[in-house]
Design a protein that fits this description.
222 residues, globular, 8-stranded parallel β-sheet, 6 helices, TIM Barrel, alpha/beta
Length: 222
């Protein structure tokens, strides 16, 4: 199946989830290297999944303020083509990771209001792609850097001037997406690529092959 809207299934931690993502037409699969996440995998586990990923699907490693030693150890175990930086990494740090490790880099920008989008511009020219995710409220207990099943106000991205800049990289929409709301999210934001994790689970950290199939089918219908 070919899905016109590019989809990343993040937090892959089982072979059943990986196989369904591949079967359904996912363009990217993500492995989470963050110990507090219920989707966390070790470099060795990610390596096994990455090697089993069919050719043509981009293998992404999600990291949160990881140091060079950890990144090197993860890449030694897992053949990844992209690193997703989901912490407080600066533009300079993102550029340094890209230069040292020779992989594509995607930086998460967390949004709650229109002004948050201004932070994206600093990364232009330093990363290959941006990912817009929901900023967790300060009152949220146990909030993770991502994967909190929260959506932000999608109209923030509608006609966003910063994204019309000639130097703006490609971007991906994330945050609270589900098979049920994907069509509306794509319509409002104009996204050409989306990232989903908690929205295709039946419990935190437990991917549902049926939900993955439904999400990819919804993307194909667009």
């Amino acid at each position: 199946m070919t899905v016109a809207l590019e989809v990343k299934i993040c937090g892959i931690n089982s072979r059943a989830a990986l196989d369904q993502a591949a079967k359904g037409g996912a363009r990217y699969v993500g492995f989470v290297f963050y110990a507090r996440s219920p989707r966390h995998v070790t470099p060795a586990q990610a390596g096994a999944f990455a090697r089993a990923t069919p050719k043509g699907i981009v293998r992404v490693g999600l990291m949160v303020d990881a140091d060079d030693e950890f990144i090197a150890s993860a890449l030694a175990e897992a053949p990844l083509e992209m690193l997703q930086l989901h912490g407080a990494e600066t533009p300079a740090r993102a550029a340094a990771i890209k230069a040292r490790f020779g992989v594509s880099v995607m930086k998460a920008i967390k949004l709650a209001e229109h002004g948050d989008l201004d932070h994206a511009r600093a990364y232009f020219g330093h990363v290959d792609r941006l990912l817009f995710d929901a900023k967790a409220p300060a009152t949220m207990t146990g909030a993770l850097p991502g994967g909190n099943a929260l959506a932000f106000d999608w109209t923030i991205l509608r006609h966003a001037r910063v994204l019309a800049d000639p130097g703006a990289p490609a971007w991906m929409l994330s945050g609270g997406l589900t098979p049920e709301n994907l069509a509306e999210a794509a319509r409002v934001t104009g996204a050409c690529a989306v990232d989903v994790s908690s929205g295709v689970e039946d419990a935190p950290g437990h991917k549902s092959p049926a939900r993955i199939a439904a999400f990819l089918a919804a993307a194909a219908a667009l």
